[in-house]
Amino acid sequence: MATDRPAWAPGDVAIDQPSVARIWDWFLGGSHNFAVDREVARKTLELMPEGPQMARLSRAFLRRAVEHCVRAGITQFIDLGSGIPTVGNVHEVAKRATPDARVAYVDIDPVAVAHTRQILAGDKQTTAIQADLRDTARVLASPELRGLLDFDKPIALLMVMVLHFVPDADDPRGILAAYRGALAPGSALVIAHGSRDTEGMPTSHLQTARKMYEREVGSVSLRTRAEVQALFEGFELVEPGVVWVPEWHPEPDEPSAGAAAAAVTAAADAASPRAGYAGMGIKRL
């Protein structure tokens, strides 16, 4: 049966292929996803009902990390693997804290980039770039990036729930070293990363969902706490170091991601499942 193409979808996007960004959008209560994305998301939810809640926890961490950066005097951001903007976009959070914030979104998904550009139309302090974060030379040489950000001043590099889609064969530490080399002292690296370590959820949920995800979407490289900590090479970790996502500078009464997201998380464990680590590091030299 033919699938209708939504009016907002770019004509060159295959609407019968699931996308990480659009699946994540559905988990967060967004509307820029296709039927194939929703099918994979629902399968994930059946196998791992904690999934959508974990997505919301990572979005709450992103907000806290951006606010922490602004308090530290960092007002420039590169959001790698930014996905489709839903509630709690980096530029919204940053601009609430300082009107001077400048944000560059980078994603490989053309739907994510197209929708981001629609949202950002007329905003001269933000930009959206379609690129693979693994292609560091292309990202860092982007005219949009160089025209927006001052690389002589600190920049926060955000990699929230994206590095577990970069396998060891692609050398994630080498990728991070390339970005680190382009950043000025005082810059920050923010990471949230899926892990095969779990707490508050059955390990079987994560493993069965991972196998299905790899079959339907692509490879997933879940890493231990020590492996995530090693990704901060060249950065000085901010207290409390690399911890479970909801335990990094937690705040009471975290805001909900919205009614739509709340509806899809009804089956999730209310005890804040932990299957991912988060941390922030500062480049000193």
Using the 3D structure, state the CATH architecture of the domain at 57-200 and 227-248 and 273-282: 3-Layer(aba) Sandwich
Structural class comes to alpha/beta
Round the Cα radius of gyration to an integer and report it. Answer: 18 Å
Number of helices, where a helix is a run of at least 4 consecutive DSSP H or I residues? 11
Q: Summarize the helix and strand pattern as letters.
A: HHHEHEHEHHEHEHHEEHE
Q: Mind summarizing the main beta sheet? A: 8 strands, mixed
Instruction: Count the E strands.
Output: 8
Outline type: globular
Helix content: 25-40%
Low-pLDDT parts are 255-270
Strand % is 15-25%
How far apart are the first and last residues' alpha carbons, in Å? 58 Å
* CATH level-four homologous superfamily name of the domain at 57-200 and 227-248 and 273-282: Vaccinia Virus protein VP39
- The whole-number mean of residue pLDDT values reads 85
CATH C-level class of the domain at 57-200 and 227-248 and 273-282 is: Alpha Beta
* CATH-defined fold name of the domain at 57-200 and 227-248 and 273-282: Rossmann fold
What does this structure look like?
With 285 residues, the chain is an alpha/beta fold. It has a domain at 57-200 and 227-248 and 273-282: 3-Layer(aba) Sandwich (Rossmann fold). Helix content is 39%, strand content 16%. Strands 1, 2, 3, 4, 5, 6, 7 and 8 form an eight-stranded mixed β-sheet that branches. Helix 2 runs antiparallel to helix 9 (203-216) and helix 3 (51-71) packs parallel to helix 4. The protein is globular and about 45 Å long. The model is unreliable at 255-270 (pLDDT under 50).
